[in-house]
Design brief:
Elements: H1 2-29, H2 32-42, H3 44-52, H4 56-79, H5 85-108, H6 116-140, H7 148-166, H8 171-206
Helix pairs in contact: 2-4, 2-5, 3-4, 5-6, 5-7, 6-8, 7-8
């Protein structure tokens, strides 16, 4: 009887400990910056509706509003020490989803002149970065952070998309060339980091 009571007590303690860990993780991740990142995803609805209605300027204003929340969540996270692994995932992910969705819309809709080859290049690159990021997380048990080259590339690609939405030529093509150069630079740096991680893992296994 006493043993049974003790077992039930230990099980209850384990459940309470697990519950406290889950609540602690939730409280750390449920921050204002992370909520702003999630809200940014819903900006896609008015963006696509305005694009479908031919209201290009209105669509761009919503895109700029999303960019404003992007800057705001980073500022709040740094100012109030609310940086988290979830935030490091959500912030760039929401940006990529927005940009890629708008690009796909321009490709399948008449009246837009976004180059198909660059759209394919962007999508394949984002898939590569996603798989590479998952691999680094698995190897290092931490979320890789965006570097300056990656942020510059993201800004240039976002600007390129906006200029193509507005059909501001030749500025859109000039921005695309700049974005292409910055994207190659950031991709090269990302590949170098992955190779560095692989090399470190190999040396660790070899006992060097």
């Amino acid at each position: 009887m006493v043993l049974s009571t003790k077992v039930r007590f230990n099980v209850s303690l384990k459940k309470l400990h697990l519950l406290s860990r889950v609540m602690n993780m939730t409280s750390k991740n449920w921050t204002i910056p992370n909520m702003l990142s999630i809200v940014r995803l819903f900006f896609l609805v008015p963006i696509l509706l305005h694009l479908a209605a031919g209201h290009r300027t209105a669509a761009v204003l919503w895109m700029l509003g999303g960019a404003l929340t992007d800057s705001l969540d980073g500022l709040i996270a740094r100012r109030f020490n609310q940086c988290s692994d979830l935030g490091r995932i959500l912030d760039p992910l929401m940006d990529k989803i927005t940009v890629v969705t708008v690009v796909i819309y321009m490709i399948i809709s008449p009246g837009y002149f976004f180059p198909l080859w660059y759209a394919v290049f962007m999508i394949l690159r984002e898939l590569m970065l996603l798989l590479g990021g998952l691999w680094v997380m698995h190897r290092r048990s931490r979320v890789p952070e965006s570097n300056r080259a990656g942020k510059n590339s993201a800004f240039a690609n976002g600007l390129t998309v906006i200029l193509f939405v507005l059909n501001w030529q030749p500025y859109a093509w000039i921005a695309l060339i700049g974005a292409l150069i910055l994207t190659f630079i950031s991709t090269a740096g990302y590949i170098r980091n992955c190779l560095s991680t692989l090399s470190a893992e190999t040396e660790k296994k070899a006992g060097i």
